[in-house]
C-alpha cells in the first residue's frame, strides 16, 4: 500500500535540537520511502544523499528513487548509511 505521510524530524546541531522540520513523503508498506524525480540526467550522489538523510530521519533502512525524466524510467534502491 502506498500512502503519503508527514513526520516531524528534529534538526540537531552540536548535540542539541535547534528546530523541527516537517518531512512529507510517500511510503510503501509503512517501511520504504519513495522519492519521485524528473531529472534529465541519471540519479546522482546528491539524490542518494537526500534519500539517506530521509532514511536516517525516519529510522528506516531502505528507500527507492524513481526517475521519470528520461525516455525510460530508472529506479535506484538506496540503503541507510
Descriptive notes:
By secondary structure, the chain is an alpha+beta fold. It has a single domain, classed as Lambda Exonuclease, Chain A, CATH 3.90.320.10. The chain is 17% helix and 53% strand. It contains 1 helix and 5 strands; from the N terminus they run βββαββ. A 5-stranded mixed β-sheet has the order 1-2-3-4-5, with helices on one face. Strand 3, helix 1 (45-58) and strand 4 form a beta-alpha-beta unit. The longest helix is centred in the middle third of the chain and has 14 residues, at 45-58.
Care to give the gist of this entry?
The protein is α+β, with helices and mostly antiparallel strands and 81 residues long. The protein contains 1 helix and 5 strands. A 5-stranded mixed sheet has the order 1-2-3-4-5, covered by helices on one side.
Amino acid at each position: 500500500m502506498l500512502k503519503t505521510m508527514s513526520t516531524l524530524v528534529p534538526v540537531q546541531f552540536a548535540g542539541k535540537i535547534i528546530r523541527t522540520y516537517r518531512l512529507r513523503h510517500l511510503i510503501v508498506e509503512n517501511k520504504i520511502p519513495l522519492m519521485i524525480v524528473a531529472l534529465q540526467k541519471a540519479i546522482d550522489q546528491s539524490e542518494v544523499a537526500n534519500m539517506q538523510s530521509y532514511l536516517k530521519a525516519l529510522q528506516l533502512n531502505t528507500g527507492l528513487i524513481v526517475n521519470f525524466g528520461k525516455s525510460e524510467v530508472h529506479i535506484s534502491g538506496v540503503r541507510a548509511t
